[in-house]
Design goal:
alpha/beta
Length: 235
């Protein structure tokens, strides 16, 4: 699977509806977006704790109401893109075609889980179209404890040293379905995860040489900022 990182974020403002629509036009198999809980318990698509980098005006997401966040322009760094609001998760769900999927990266803590489950239940998507991903073991464990039928993958940054046996223990302890990582060089780690019965997903890959190598190694998905380009190169 080719997964569009924050949408087609090379060509449109990250985590906006325009980036997700463009990802579908570029024939991505799935989109990945970052999500946080607002001060009034809404789930919005935003990577950072505050809005300064992407919107040019600073609001702390967890301390702000959605009505305040929605007034910002998330496309201010893109002169050629019409103004984009900070979208709700429910709005992002509506862009997902029947045969496509979404990876929901949780960027806050387990406090988001009740609202997240409710949003998934009220969406028009099937459970097979949805995966939740997070770096926080507690988030994955909390989600799987109340919704074991929703796929969830633990994220791992190779900058943080850990051996494969420790990672496998974490996957088992959290009841995760798979691992997502920026590891692009250790076939041994990928083999260990897959042979233990877990999925393996890789991010963020924008060059075809690396992508082809990872496909040969058997990864389940490749997340990229350039879904259209990568599809042309691979297929």
């Amino acid at each position: 699977m080719i997964v569009a990182h924050r949408g087609a974020s090379k060509d449109a403002p990250e985590n906006t509806l325009e980036a997700f629509r463009m990802a579908w036009l570029q024939n991505a198999d799935a989109i990945e977006g970052d999500f946080r809980l607002t001060g009034d318990d809404q789930i919005v698509c935003m990577h950072d704790e505050d809005t300064l980098r992407t919107c040019g005006e600073k609001m702390i997401v967890s301390e702000s109401a959605y009505s305040e966040l929605s007034s910002l322009d998330a496309s201010y760094q893109f002169d050629n893109i019409p103004s984009q609001s900070v979208p709700l998760l429910s709005d992002v769900f509506k862009t997902v075609p029947d045969n496509k999927a979404i990876y929901i990266e949780v960027k806050c803590g387990p406090e988001i889980v009740p609202a997240l489950i409710n949003a998934i239940i009220n969406s028009n998507l099937g459970k097979e179209q949805i995966s939740v991903i997070a770096f926080d073991d507690v988030v994955i464990k909390a989600l799987k404890s109340v919704a074991p039928n929703i796929k969830a993958n633990l994220l791992y940054d190779v900058a943080l040293p850990v051996d494969s046996s420790e990672l496998l223990d974490r996957l088992k302890n959290t009841k995760a379905d798979g691992l997502g990582s920026n590891n692009m060089n250790s076939k041994e780690l990928i083999d260990a995860v897959i042979q233990a019965g877990f999925e393996y997903h890789c991010w963020t890959v924008d060059d075809s040489k690396t992508a082809k190598k990872l496909l040969e190694w058997g990864v389940n998905s490749i997340t990229t900022n350039r879904p259209g380009y990568l599809r042309q190169q691979l297929y």
